[in-house]
Structure prediction request, 111 residues.
Amino acid sequence: MPGIIGEETPQIRANYSMGYVAIAPGNATPPHRLIGTAELVYVLDGTAEIRCDNETVTAREGETVLLPEGGVLQSIVSAGGDADLRYITVSQPAYTPRSRSRGGMNLTRST
Prediction:
């Protein structure tokens, strides 16, 4: 049965998490490891430099990047321009505090 997922429809179960992220120019997400979950990043506005497993992918408005399960996400950086990077992130299965580890990693900043 299709429907809008929310408190009004507890019978509709979702096995993913979805979030909206905005990052100011020159800033980045903190590094983390994807444990038991994969993540999609869909860029709404701006340009993202996504560093995962020592590879960098540049994604622009309308592009989607898959970050594989077990990957080490060094950062998602707002690259270029004066506007915020805005993106939607989807993780499956749903996010839990155990699905991400930040042990021993430092926040990076683009130069």
Q: What stands out?
A: DSSP finds no helices and nine strands in the chain. The CA atoms of residues 60 and 71 lie 21 Å apart.
